[in-house]
Amino acid sequence: MVSNNVLRALAPELARWDNRPGIPSHVEVATEPAAEPVSVDQFRRIAGEDEVDATTRNITTNAGLDEHAILPLIRTARRVIERYLGQAFITQTVDAYFDPDQFNDRLRLLNPPLQSITSIISTDDSGTETTQTASTYYALTGRRCEVVLHDGQTWPSSPRAHDAMVVKFVAGYGASAIGTPNFQANATPANGTGIRILATGGTYCGTEDITYRVMCDGATTFKYSTDAGLKWRKATTTMSGAYQLLDSGVFVKFPAVTGYTAADDYWDITCTGHGVPEQYCLAIASLAFHLRESGSGYARDDVSDIVERGKLPPVIAAILGPRVLV
User: Fold this and answer.
1) Which residue(s) pair with 46 in the sheet?
2) DSSP state of 40
């Protein structure tokens, strides 16, 4: 398993934490993201494993790829690139630990973008914990990712020598969401009635807001589009009565498996994207692909660079652009 080795190799280069005031001694992810910013379907597209039929405009995917084998690679790639950039992508909870000599009026949390401060807790030599009153500090959200004391306020006195204070905060560009399907035929509002109710599930992994159009192309089959019907994916897919994957982590379930009307029965599902910059998602998928291909050729050398020297493949570093280390 490459993930732990990769992270250990990158940590010395990327941390660069020292005893300067306001810089934490170390940072830990307390609650991992609920989803990855790249789905298996997006990985397949970037890996060139989708095909488009020029006549029907239908898109087919190589379903032979093992999802359970790809997801750990995506997760590892995301963690590596988060460390490389010193950022948090999908919403996650992070703990930043400070020693007494690192206390300052302004604490730099180092994992932007900051969404909010959950708590600040200090511990003294006797092990007694004290929660800092929220009115004594304020957060500089976004890329600043700092917490600042109000004028005249101080951090608790008599802290213990190490890990004297922990700032728990929420970081990341955001989380995704799937809206309620809006049934379109005959101007019926909301999600339709009777069998014309469509259920959704999963976690949308897209970068940007998008609308899926799910249309019945027969009494028992459906297809879907992400561009209002210009191109259709999974055409003539048989309804199973269970949740079925569209892509990017979005599932749909038909309450019945027959009785629908082709073209007349369709739903628009509006999904909210997580907002992670597109180049970061591309870099994650590309690194995951390199890790998958590490058994041969230059990709093996690239993974060796990651594990042994804490370096990313040049093409992935180029996608990410220059980084700023503290």
Assistant:
1) none
2) H
Q: What pLDDT does residue 324 have?
A: 56
The reported pLDDT for the residue numbered 57 is 46
Strand ranges (E), the chain: 26-31, 50-52, 58-61, 92-98, 106-108, 114-123, 129-131, 137-140, 146-149, 165-171, 177-178, 182-183, 199-202, 210-216, 221-225, 232-238, 244-245, 250-253, 266-272
CA geometry: angle 235, 216, 244, nearest 5 deg: 65
List beta partners, residue 250: 202
pLDDT at 284: 93
> What pLDDT is stored for residue 298 in this prediction?
47
Stated as kind and residue range, the H or E segment containing 288 is helix 278-292
Specify the amino acid at residue 125: D
Distance CA 62, CA 47 (A): 11
Task: Show the tokens assigned to 252.
Answer: 């749909």
What is this structure's pTM?
Answer: 0.76
Ranges of the chain with pLDDT below 70: 1-20, 48-67, 186-190, 295-310, 323-326
Q: At what angle do helices 278-292 and 297-304 cross, to 10 degrees?
A: 110
Q: What pLDDT, in 10s, does the model give residues 11-25? A: 444 444 445 678 999
**Interatomic CA distance for residues 171 and 264, integer angstroms:** 43
Q: How many CB atoms sit inside 10 A of residue 74's CB?
A: 24
pLDDT score for 15: 43
Vertex 55: Cα angle to 244 and 271 (nearest 5): 35
Q: What is the DSSP string of 85-152?
A: HT---B-EEEEEEE-GGG--SEEE--SPSEEEEEEEEEEBTT--EEEPPGGGEEEETBTT-EEEEPTT
